[in-house]
Write a structure and sequence with these properties.
Two copies of one chain form a homodimer.
Chain A lengths: L9 H12 L5 H7 L8 H13 L3 E6 L2 E6 L3 H17 L3 H11 L4 H18 L1
Antiparallel strand pairs in A: 1-2
Helix pairs in contact in A: 1-3, 2-3
Chain A binds a DNA duplex (30 and 30 nucleotides) through helix 1 and helix 3.
DNA sequence: AGTTTAGATTTACAATTGTAAATCTAAGGG
DNA sequence: CCCTTAGATTTACAATTGTAAATCTAAACT
């Protein structure tokens, strides 16, 4: 089955992240919970919700006078799709290069480093 | 100085990658060298070139009847900008999560694994 | 019941993007 | 010197996106 993940725009991602994190969510709630650095009017948020509805990324459930929204696409799948697209576009699909680039560029906590190393070691074990 | 990296669209990335890899490049050359799975007419490619010119991402140099294009923005910087944007949009800026996700999802060659591990070890050393 | 109003729905509108076709122009061929 | 033509430039056009305003509608208040 071809998992049909709709194309989610940058602004829509913001909305989807809210809904994934905490659903069902009303427009109201989403508006309240938006990160402080985002300044969208209510109308703007409702527009994005409608576009996500049209794209079948979320599904509404009537609740009193308003709707509660549930995700219809999975966070994991969307992340994977978006990651693939990014990887291909920017790094020609070369994961190694991409990783190296990130690692060199960014600082990580000791815990994060440990975790990554553990995953790598696991991967290596499985290989031989 | 605020390094002014223009927003480069998906199609434009394809062109920029060609120009970074091998410049100066004429429109002709770029068209020839495009990956086989991309089917753009000459006009389409020229449109993208013009848009990149307008965005000051490339710079032309007259050469006979045609132009040779040079990159005006650096590959590294563009990659970094694009990576940051992706990271923020999809993973809320959490590099660790992103990395973990990728690592779990993707297969790497032994060499790549080694290289990544080396980088991680380096990073750890520097920390204490 | 009539009025306000919160939320939903419709409409708007410019910028960007993907995808070119149409047209212009100068250089090379006859 | 005129014609062809390769490449450049201009124009096109629908879809998507960011950003809402305008309007509709049903519920809540008086």
């Amino acid at each position: 089955m071809i998992s049909n993940i709709p194309k989610i725009s940058e602004a829509e991602w913001e909305i989807m992240k809210m809904i994934w994190r905490d659903h069902p969510a009303t427009a109201e709630q989403i508006i309240e919970r938006l990160p402080a650095d985002i300044e969208w009017t209510e109308q703007t948020v409702r527009t994005f919700l409608n576009r996500l509805l049209k794209k079948k990324a979320i599904i509404p459930e009537k609740s009193g006078r308003s709707y509660r929204y549930f995700p219809l696409v999975q966070e994991d799948e969307c992340k994977r799709a978006e990651s693939e697209s990014f990887l291909k576009r920017v790094f020609n699909g070369a994961v190694g290069t991409m990783m190296t680039n990130f690692l060199e560029d960014v600082q990580l906590s000791n815990e994060e480093i440990d975790k990554l190393q553990k995953i790598l070691t696991e991967k290596q074990k499985k290989k031989q």
